[in-house]
Amino acid sequence: MNTPVIGEGAIQVRVPLPDDSANFPPSSTAVFYNPEMELNRDITVAAISGFIARTGVEPASISYADVMSASGIRGIRMAKEVGLKCHLNDWNQDAYELMRENIKLNGLEESCTPSNQNANTLMHQEQFDIVDLDPFGSPAPFLDAAARSARRLLCITATDTAPLCGAHLKSGIRKYAAVPLNTEYHREMGARILLGATARELARRDKGMNVLLTHVTRHYVRVYLEIIRGVSRADSTMEKLGFIAHCFHCGFRSWEYGLTPESTPKPRSASLSVCPNCGKSLKFAGPLWLGTIQEQDFCSMVLDELKHRKSGKCKDAVKIIEFCKDEIDIPTYYDQHWLCKQNKISAGPIDELVEVLTSAGFNASRTHFAGTGFKTDADLDNINKLLHQLDVQRKNHR
């Protein structure tokens, strides 16, 4: 195995690379390493540092577990750049040996503890203030153990976006015990399905959660969840689960809190199966998370950390978190290009549409989920009317 030393953040690590490292699939190496996830790791460093600063607790007294460490790069960055007491684990023997070497390479033997065991076994045996669950694929088999182990913060990455977003419907149902729909806002659908499944696992442990940050970037979903212990907080977390009703014909959507879709949609239709906008059949997604997915104050702290640290992917990371911070707090987004195609009109600049919506008295914002996406509390009729008005204005100015 070729293991050159690379630099990332404030550390140096050996990473596994094939002899011909151009465009190699990360899964082809003996120890998993993905250079494309540097952005994810940069945001993680900033997010966890911001979280600890908010608690006012000394970083050295905070225990952090990267339960699927591979080369150890994420956990070693946490120890070096944030000052945490880190546990690095992987059940692959080659990964275990490599992370031990990388810990020594950075002189972190006193702050990093390596282990070589099954991730679920570790999380069922021990509790940590912060648990970072970053598997290659679905986190679903590890959510129960992670919910048990995490005391303060749970960070999860999911790369199985096809099941989460509804593209592989039956797989999504099996893994997350929920129905995902492959809508034009499928990226947010995937995030909310993951959050809903995690909320249910935490509730089984009498824990609730505050969702601090959610972002869907490239091929993965990443969430940061503050853990709040207690039956009442578990109950209040469960109250934020619900269903989304969606019409694939016209794009209408509605949502209702609760574990059964008893009154969705309302108030314009007495039927649970008929779209109040066009009369076509509705489909239902859920149960999923309908609560807040971004905490603005926390996003501001992450931005401060990113700008202070100026990490390798800082520019891209800042752009993502700024979008997250400015998103209005409402489930689902619309895709301008999809709506314009439905209305048989041309799409203009997305910022122009957001400005027109806000000028008309609605709340509206762009979204990090899609470059052509926007969030608004305007109903579909008003959105379509404003799109047509913009189309007429553009034609008149030609």
What does this protein structure show overall?
By secondary structure, the protein is an alpha/beta fold. It folds into two domains: 5-289, Rossmann fold (3-Layer(aba) Sandwich), CATH 3.40.50.150; 333-398, Phenylalanyl-tRNA Synthetase, Chain B, domain 1. Helices cover 39% and strands 21% of the residues. The chain has 14 helices and 15 strands. The chain has helices at residues 38-55, 73-82, 93-105, 119-125, 143-149, 161-165, 169-176, 186-204, 231-238, 296-309, 314-326, 336-343, 350-359, 380-396, and strands spanning 5-8, 11-14, 63-66, 85-89, 112-115, 128-133, 150-158, 207-217, 220-229, 241-246, 253-257, 283-289, 334-335, 364-366, 373-376. The protein has a seven-stranded mixed sheet, sandwiched between helices. A three-stranded antiparallel sheet has the order 11-10-12. A three-stranded antiparallel sheet has the order 13-15-14. Helix 3 (93-105) links the parallel strand 4 and strand 5 (112-115). Helix 1 packs parallel to helix 2 (73-82), helix 4 packs parallel to helix 5 (143-149) and helix 10 (296-309) runs antiparallel to helix 11 (314-326). The longest helix is centred in the middle third of the chain and has 19 residues, at 186-204.
